[in-house]
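Response to reviewer comment R2.3. The reviewers asked that we include at least one raw input/output pair. We reproduce the pair for UDP-N-acetylenolpyruvoylglucosamine reductase here without editing.
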Amino acid sequence: MNIRNHYPLKDNNTFGMDVVADCYIEYDTRPELLQIINMAKQGLLPRPLLHIGGGSNILFTQDFHGTVLRSRIMGIDRVDGAAMLKVGAGVKWEALCDFCAREGIWGIENLSIIPGEVGGAVVQNIGAYGVELKDVVYSVEAYSLTTGERKIFNNNECKFGYRRSVFTSQYSDWAVVTATFNLSYNPNPNIEYGELRRVIAGYHHRKPEQVDIRYVTQMDIREAIIEIRSSKLPDPEKIGSAGSFFKNPYVERSVYENIAKEFPDAPNYPQPDGRIKLSAAWLIDKCGWKGAVHKGAKCYEKQPLVIVNTGNAKASDIIELAREIQVSVASRFGVDLKPEVKYI
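Raw output as returned:
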């Protein structure tokens, strides 16, 4: 366990906000986490407690007057020798994707190169290219930061939804320590997203509609997604951002039909409940925000769903730009965009 006071968090959030925590603690084991919780109960640590992962989905708006916790619980362990994996919350998500690809384990290849760590991935129910993490989560082990209580949550108890889980609501003061994923050695390629199919078709020297799913490999999917995401999204090691800033909105069919009158080709994804999922990036682009700059923040020129720190942005610059985008989209399309990023 490593306890540091007045600790700079610039390297612990992908926006690169230059803020300081009163106290910062990294822990490697469950007993260390319980020790931290007991210290907090005894008033030996600044409160509140804030648990972060890779800092890839947060925006610090000021110094944090409390204690920031980060898990360094590692390990990727097979359960009963099957394709079920128990993974430490501190494992980098991309490291898990790479491990699965090398071991021929299917299920998360569509989620390749999403930044962050396993714990945060579970909390946010990350998703991309037709796959959400909820599809493969078997159980989650977590501890209450208030009482130290331990609980194993099954998939249903996690109450996964679009970019949310029970850990973003009812159990938001709990820390995920491990997650168990129910994966498979049996190939099950998912290339329904048009752009993904087009890139893979190029690998096979075929037209998209001619791709034979039987010959699509795990590495085909992984390499295609890495290619697509790398071409659109900034490298967090070089440009500060939190990836997708807004959630894709779900709207009533009548709202979509009004948009389709002017834009018949507007991307749309019908849902089982009758609503339509729209592309936030498309809405933002149609409002002319791509490449727009506001003080130290910018709507990324290659992917308008991303807001970047140009190098010296304040949190207020980013929030103001986000708000202007929200107002613009609501005015033109009648759609309310919600931030995916959590303001702290």
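The longest strand covers residues 174-182. The mean pLDDT is 95. Further pairs are available on request from the corresponding author.
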